């Protein structure tokens, strides 16, 4: 899965309605790119966030969703 767009300004987890901008005032690109394999999210090197290059196991499903 690869999701691209522009970085958004967040304050207390909420979007302010503004884009993150570089020194020239241009909106900054973002990318979240991962491959899901055997219950593990493998974030690709072109991701622009803190999980770039990491492998994150998904949590177990709650019992009521297992069947």
Question: What can you see in these coordinates?
Answer:
There is one protein chain. The chain has 67 residues and is mostly beta strands. The protein has one domain. 0% of the residues lie in helices and 46% in strands. The protein is built from no helices and six strands. The chain has strands at residues 2-6, 8-11, 14-19, 29-37, 40-43, 55-57. The strands form two sheets. Strands 1-4-5-6 form a four-stranded antiparallel β-sheet, with no helix packed on it. Strands 2-3 form a two-stranded antiparallel sheet.
Record the SSE blueprint.
Layout: E1 2-6, E2 8-11, E3 14-19, E4 29-37, E5 40-43, E6 55-57
Number of separate structural domains: 1
The description of the largest β-sheet is:
4 strands, antiparallel
Class from secondary-structure proportions: mainly beta
Strand order of the largest sheet: 1-4-5-6
Give the helix tally: 0
Distance between the termini: 26 Å
